[in-house]
Amino acid sequence: MLARISDWFEERAGLKGWLKRKKELPIPSHMNFFYCFGGISFTIIMLQLVTGLFMTFFYIPRPEEALNSILRFSNEVTLGWLMRNMHRWGSTLLVTTLITHIITVFYHKAYQRPRELNWVSGLILFFAVFLFSITGTILPWDWRGYWVLVIWTDYVGTWPVIGEFLKDPILGSFSVSRSFVTHILLLPIITAILLVFHFKMVKRHGISGPL
User: Which of 22, 30, 179, 185 is most buried, most CB within 10 Å of its CB?
Assistant: First the structure.
């Protein structure tokens, strides 16, 4: 019975064939553990997506309710504490793996022709992940979230020429709900587009060789 169901599904979806083709793809002989950090980062991004979606059902993006909704989620919802901690520590781990990936790419000079677009899209992705981390830290709207907002807007104000022009609009337009929309909608859309483009470039040019 299970064999029939499996064959029926395989005939229509072709999942086994797809997995077989992926397993048969050649792996360059110079590959080592440090080449895996791009894939590790992508895996963490997928975990962030799953845990983040779970949390959106319970988070209330209002200043007076934000922290209490997170506390209720962590203490009263089944496995809520696990989802929150996976999401919170996953963001820190993601920044770490991306930095390692960037350093590895730079060391192997994989940013050179014809992989310039891989490099640029990867750097923009890192910037997007960094914005994820900042907006996510603000969302609980506790003392830490408040000071993250203050410190980063002060830092933007130190930028030459444009800093002071950006600082006041950022503070003037800020709200917890807008930070929430940026975190769960705008940044995910940008990240998804960049990931698709980045993977297409990697597939087009392949994995760089050793120095």
Answer: 179
